[in-house]
């Protein structure tokens, strides 16, 4: 893959200007965010010569020209984007002849018949599309008509040097983090109400943008910088991540960050999540939308802090073995270089 003179592979990473890699790199240098680039994609430089470009949102004229196939002339050379929305922006404003992209939400949209035809058509022109959940592979291949786009799964990874093991706390605290569209605050709050009725001394901190009223005793935080979030994980006895049914393993980022901090997790057993959380070894997987089962899993860990700490230690080992950004990027590059 590399010659003695350096990487033989060259590619471009295109990302949204709202999440500038250059700005992120400066924040990382100040110790504020994990990884040098978003999602740890700076590790691409271990395998390739990488050019980074910013993608501004397309204006009305650009969108109209794209619909009429009158956009700018496509540029050669392989370009990567993290997700399908960024890929669509790129193909609208800076089209590429050769591109590959991650796919996150589109498989769930296809399940409900809501996948935009223009997005599906765009993906059908990609050289490759990768997903972070094995459960997405076949649905994506089916959605693309088993065409020429290569579809493969990559294990997600986090910055294990930013999220590090911390001493297990001596007071019970439940922490929940997450804002994406598949989080399930209703089930979370119902479960926490049950737990606090039985263990009123337990603290509960929830980072969410949900408008639902939390039960008494639950502290809600609307936004938290990465460095503060890292410290919040360290105060947790257990990190809980309830989600609605989905294929893209919503919550995997929080799960891996918590495990890297040596904290056990309780997470909804959606397709693909078993890749990241091992039942009874690093945490517990519970049925979707079942507050009673969720509360029981939390109480089980609160009642046995020694076992909970052991699960957290196991989780840290699993992250180091399987779920770092370096492992993720190496897997991504192998998938991109695999023969068609």
From TrEMBL:
GO terms for molecular function: glycosyltransferase activity. Pfam families: Glyco_trans_1_4 (PF13692). CDD domains: GT4_PimA-like. Transmembrane segments: none annotated. It comes from the Bacteria. PANTHER family: ALPHA-MALTOSE-1-PHOSPHATE SYNTHASE (PTHR12526:SF590), GLYCOSYLTRANSFERASE (PTHR12526). This is Glycosyl transferase family 1 domain-containing protein. It comes from Microbacterium maritypicum MF109. The lineage of its organism: Bacteria, Bacillati, Actinomycetota, Actinomycetes, Micrococcales.
